[in-house]
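Lab notebook, design round three. We kept the backbone fixed and only want residue identities now. Task for the bench partner: fill in a sequence for the structure below.
Input structure tokens:
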């Protein structure tokens, strides 16, 4: 009993560091208990004043365990001290989040593309590359990369190449203006925080507001992409096979010989569109072209092919009164080997233009993003494509074309260093795309092959 009591309750004889900490903890506890009993109204206990210019710190855990025989007042004082010391711990994470939000321009983007006719006589694929297409509501640049795989002729894919970025820029500008207006409206009626509310509660409210804004932002992006695909589909349906009418003001009729033949044709295009803004990857897909992200050596599909035999797509087609027939694979009405596309007027309403949209947060482990038509994915798996592109990007020599050759840097809109975004294709990314296309050709791909490789790392 004597040994146990000496180990728990008795103070050390010497003026050791442990003894000083214990005495300080009890003094703080008595001070808080006295203040709590004499305060006119309940409220959060004040933090202890720093001693000799030092920072406010909570007593070490050993001071609580070594004073189990103290009075109840001391226990309540220690509990108050723990609450007061716990509140400031959220501040560093908040500052870190703000620092992360301000560093959107640090995310690098470099790109390259290749399009091959392959074993076909006619080239029906196209690619669209538009770095710094427009700016979002907060001023951060938005970069557009897309692949279009035409069917029944090249003009539908060519029309998408010429007009999709124009349409999307208009829709994004309108969405950004509406987002900023709604954001200002939501901030105006906000009441000033009361003096009794703690800093932790204020931080919680700020985090909830930021999460709500992020959710509204994603809704705006999805809406802009969906409207853009609908407008591009209207152009693809009404354009003539001769290529005329490939503008936003499509003529109602064309006098060429192909206009009459167009009436019985099945003409359209797939579309896989990737938007890069800050630390977000936004992918919209309609058809069987695909987007795959290489992250830390793992292939992460950001889109899923719209095939007629996909269970959900087959159910939708049957609900629309259509049929899925197996003629050299599953086909809508035995004609089209995909369930969603732009154009294909005679296959509506079974074939729709509504895209599936995914939003992915970028990571420092991201290596590259690959967009390609089915001419690549029919013969090369996601894993092999990511491994080949990543290895090519890591082993490549020059990182960027010289500035004198015409490349330019897009300047950030709000301070900081310039983002690593070239306005021209990078040789290293071009070689990665070319290697993938040649590999698909060597594996006897029977279709056009179009590949876009976006390097997501700042390589030196």
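Proposed sequence:
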């Amino acid at each position: 009993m004597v040994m146990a009591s000496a180990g728990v309750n008795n103070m050390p004889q010497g003026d050791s560091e442990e003894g000083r900490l214990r005495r300080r903890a009890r003094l703080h506890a008595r001070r808080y208990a006295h203040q709590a009993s004499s305060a006119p109204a309940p409220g959060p206990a004040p933090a202890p004043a720093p001693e000799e210019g030092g920072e406010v710190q909570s007593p070490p855990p050993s001071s609580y365990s070594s004073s189990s025989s103290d009075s109840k007042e001391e226990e309540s004082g220690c509990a108050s001290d723990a609450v007061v010391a716990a509140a400031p711990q959220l501040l560093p994470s908040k500052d870190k989040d703000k620092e992360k939000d301000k560093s959107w321009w640090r995310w690098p983007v470099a790109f390259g593309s290749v399009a091959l006719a392959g074993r076909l006589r006619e080239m029906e694929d196209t690619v669209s590359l538009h770095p710094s297409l427009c700016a979002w509501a907060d001023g951060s640049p938005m970069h557009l990369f897309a692949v279009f795989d035409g069917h029944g002729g090249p003009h539908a894919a060519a029309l998408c190449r010429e007009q999709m970025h124009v349409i999307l820029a208009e829709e994004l500008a309108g969405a950004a203006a509406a987002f900023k207006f709604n954001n200002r409206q939501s901030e105006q009626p906000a009441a000033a925080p009361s003096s009794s509310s703690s800093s932790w509660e204020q931080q919680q409210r700020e985090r909830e507001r930021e999460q709500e804004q992020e959710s509204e932002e994603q809704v705006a992006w999805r809406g802009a992409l969906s409207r853009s695909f609908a407008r591009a589909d209207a152009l693809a349906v009404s354009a003539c096979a001769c290529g005329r009418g490939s503008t936003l003001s499509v003529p109602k009729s064309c006098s060429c010989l192909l206009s009459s033949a167009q009436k019985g044709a099945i003409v359209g295009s797939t579309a896989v569109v990737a938007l890069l803004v800050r630390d977000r990857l936004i992918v919209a897909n309609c058809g069987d072209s695909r987007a795959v992200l290489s992250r830390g050596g793992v292939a992460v599909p950001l889109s899923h092919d719209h095939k007629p035999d996909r269970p959900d797509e087959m159910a939708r087609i049957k609900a629309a009164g259509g049929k899925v027939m197996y003629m050299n694979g599953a086909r809508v009405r035995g004609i089209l080997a995909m369930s969603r596309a732009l154009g294909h007027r005679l296959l509506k309403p079974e074939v729709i233009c509504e895209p599936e949209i995914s939003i992915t947060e970028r990571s420092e482990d991201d290596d590259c993003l690959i967009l390609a038509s089915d001419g690549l994915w029919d013969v090369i798996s996601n894993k092999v494509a990511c491994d080949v592109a990543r290895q090519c990007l890591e082993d490549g020599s020059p990182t960027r074309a010289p500035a004198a050759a015409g490349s330019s840097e897009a300047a950030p809109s709000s301070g900081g260093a310039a983002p690593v975004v070239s306005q021209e294709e990078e040789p290293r990314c071009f070689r990665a795309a070319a290697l993938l296309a040649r590999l698909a050709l060597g594996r006897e791909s029977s279709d056009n092959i179009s590949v876009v490789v976006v390097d997501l790392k700042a390589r030196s």
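Keep this in mind before ordering anything: The domain at 108-188+204-306+341-455 is CATH 3.60.40.10 (Phosphatase 2c; domain 1).
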